[in-house]
């Protein structure tokens, strides 16, 4: 890098390439100040070559580059057609002035408007107040208004703007104030496109002027020793270009894993290191596994459309063995080991209904039903679906991470130890626990992690021991510790973002630069 180094003018000139010298000389010929695009035309180099040279010269303090952005208005194809032949409402107005009142179809045919243009014309005739409908006998006719008659002799600003843009695109800032509102209207009508154009204004610095005063000689320059140069002996005559090995190169953006997937992979690796095995959930699940097997009552509000998402196809799912269904039905109706259950008649038709899986607990309970003996230590990271209003904190589709541990003699203290170890391995050393409530665990606890940047505690994990009403119908006689991570909050914390929607946006710059913190 040259910036900040004390180099004499001779050494600076020696480091300049032929293209950089040409750009410097061209800028001098243009009076020391020029736009980058004009400079490219003057020097006879393509824009990319000019900008590469400009960036180097700017870095070396020979040129000052200032970026200016302008909004420009460009007439689109439909707008050009209307600028030439008139807006649909204008053409209908002119015909209406000669034959008012008149049927709409007759006016449209006389004004040579197609069906789409007829609809547009009627909309804007009403909006501009140029015409109105009247009833005559059994017919609905269009009649010109006083404002319409006035418009015949005075063109409004939107039509004047169309004529102005017909010749060439214009800078929005240079348009008269009375045309700013019509411009927005034409943009809404998709007749005009507003786009941003960037100009790079270049100016020689004092150092650049001194370099030019010293004198720059354009000589043939080679960037590499080619076969022709060696065999012809011309390598003795040409100047070999010097390379600045510390000059910044063009940024390279190789393929990478999505930032959210990086958090998933990190959590998965941590859980596998802790001895957990991974299981997968299902996209479409029966209400039996999504709710019934979790001892969630069939009239529970979470089953309504405002929470879970029901399906019409497939409308029903197969149930497991009749024996298991009877045991879970009995737990709901009469309870187990001292509980009284929910006290209603269990309905297997409800159990067969299908939903988009709303909780990964369905996957872990499915697994428990086929693995009733200890030890069991599994986790699931998968999509779940809820009928949520989408905002900065909620999505209708998101990830959940959940796990269970079953073994003899486990207690809630063991559960808190697992959660603390997971949080610490995720780089979240500050964690606190408090009592919590979940429908299918008792006792239950919630865990908050401390967000250093925001300096606040964030609810992130929940845990508890599965209730006997859930376990006994599955034939399980041992404690089952269950924990769940609010994965979206975890990902937002790790990626330093405030809006959950940022996890799914297609912002290339964000995807290229985002790193876990």
Report on the architecture of this protein.
The chain has three domains: 9-68 and 198-240, Winged helix-like DNA-binding domain superfamily/Winged helix DNA-binding domain (Arc Repressor Mutant, subunit A); 77-154, Orthogonal Bundle (Arc Repressor Mutant, subunit A); 262-513, Bira Bifunctional Protein, Domain 2 (BirA Bifunctional Protein, domain 2, 2-Layer Sandwich). The protein is built from 22 helices and 18 strands. It has helices at 9-15, 18-29, 36-43, 47-59, 77-85, 88-98, 104-110, 115-128, 146-153, 157-167, 180-188, 206-214, 227-232, 259-273, 287-290, 322-333, 348-352, 361-370, 412-425, 468-471, 487-495, 508-513, and strands at residues 33-35, 63-75, 131-136, 139-144, 170-171, 192-204, 221-222, 239-240, 277-278, 284-286, 309-310, 354-356, 376-385, 397-406, 431-435, 441-451, 456-466, 480-485. The protein has a seven-stranded mixed sheet with strand order 9-13-14-18-17-16-15, with helices on both faces. Residues 1-6 have low confidence and may be disordered. Strand 15 and strand 16 form a beta hairpin. 39% of the residues lie in helices and 21% in strands. The longest helix has 15 residues, at 259-273. By secondary structure, it is α+β, with helices and mostly antiparallel strands.
């Amino acid at each position: 890098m040259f910036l900040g180094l004390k180099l004499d003018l001779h050494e600076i000139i020696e480091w300049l390439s032929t293209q950089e010298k040409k750009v410097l000389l061209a800028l001098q010929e243009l009076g020391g100040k020029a736009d980058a695009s004009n400079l490219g035309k003057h020097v006879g180099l393509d824009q990319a070559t000019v900008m590469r040279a400009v960036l180097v010269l700017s870095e070396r303090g020979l040129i000052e580059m200032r970026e200016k952005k302008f909004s420009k208005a460009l007439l689109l194809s439909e707008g050009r057609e209307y600028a030439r032949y008139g807006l649909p409402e204008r053409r209908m107005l002119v015909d209406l002035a000669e034959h008012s009142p008149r049927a709409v179809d007759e006016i449209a045919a006389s004004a040579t408007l197609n069906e789409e243009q007829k609809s547009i014309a009627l909309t804007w005739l009403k909006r501009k107040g140029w015409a109105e409908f009247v009833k005559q006998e059994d017919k609905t006719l269009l009649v010109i208004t006083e404002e319409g008659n006035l418009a015949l002799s005075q063109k409004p600003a939107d039509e004047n703007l169309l004529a102005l843009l017909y010749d060439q695109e214009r800078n929005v800032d240079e348009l008269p104030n009375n045309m700013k509102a019509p411009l927005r209207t034409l943009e809404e009508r998709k007749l005009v496109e507003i786009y941003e154009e960037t100009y790079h204004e270049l100016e020689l610095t004092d150092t650049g002027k001194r370099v030019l005063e010293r004198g720059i000689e354009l000589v043939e320059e080679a960037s590499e020793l080619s076969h022709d140069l060696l065999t012809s002996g011309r390598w003795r005559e040409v100047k070999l270009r010097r390379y600045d090995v510390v000059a910044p190169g063009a940024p390279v953006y190789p393929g990478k894993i999505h930032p959210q997937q990086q958090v998933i992979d990190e959590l998965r690796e941590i859980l596998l290191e802790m001895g957990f095995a991974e299981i997968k959930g299902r996209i479409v699940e029966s209400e039996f596994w999504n709710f019934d097997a979790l001892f969630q009552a069939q009239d529970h509000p979470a089953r309504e459309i405002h929470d879970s998402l029901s399906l019409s196809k497939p409308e029903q799912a197969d149930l497991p063995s009749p024996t298991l269904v009877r045991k879970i039905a009995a737990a709901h109706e009469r309870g187990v080991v001292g509980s009284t259950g929910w006290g209603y008649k269990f309905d297997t038709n409800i159990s067969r209904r299908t939903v988009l899986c709303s909780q990964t607990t369905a996957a872990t309970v499915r697994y428990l039903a086929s693995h009733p003996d200890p030890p069991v230590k599994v986790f699931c990271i998968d999509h779940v679906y809820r009928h949520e209003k989408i905002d900065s904190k909620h999505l209708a589709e998101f990830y959940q991470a959940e796990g269970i541990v079953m073994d003899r003699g486990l207690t809630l203290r063991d559960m808190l130890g697992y959660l603390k170890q997971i949080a610490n391995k995720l780089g979240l050393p500050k964690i606190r626990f408090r009592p919590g409530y979940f429908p299918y665990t008792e006792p239950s606890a919630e865990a908050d992690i401390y967000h250093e940047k925001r300096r606040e505690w964030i609810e992130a994990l929940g845990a508890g021991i599965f209730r006997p009403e859930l376990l006994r119908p599955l034939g399980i006689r041992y404690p089952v510790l269950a924990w769940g991570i609010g994965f979206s909050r975890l990902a937002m914390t790790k990626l330093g973002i405030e809006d959950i929607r940022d996890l799914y946006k297609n912002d290339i710059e964000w995807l290229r630069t985002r790193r876990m913190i």
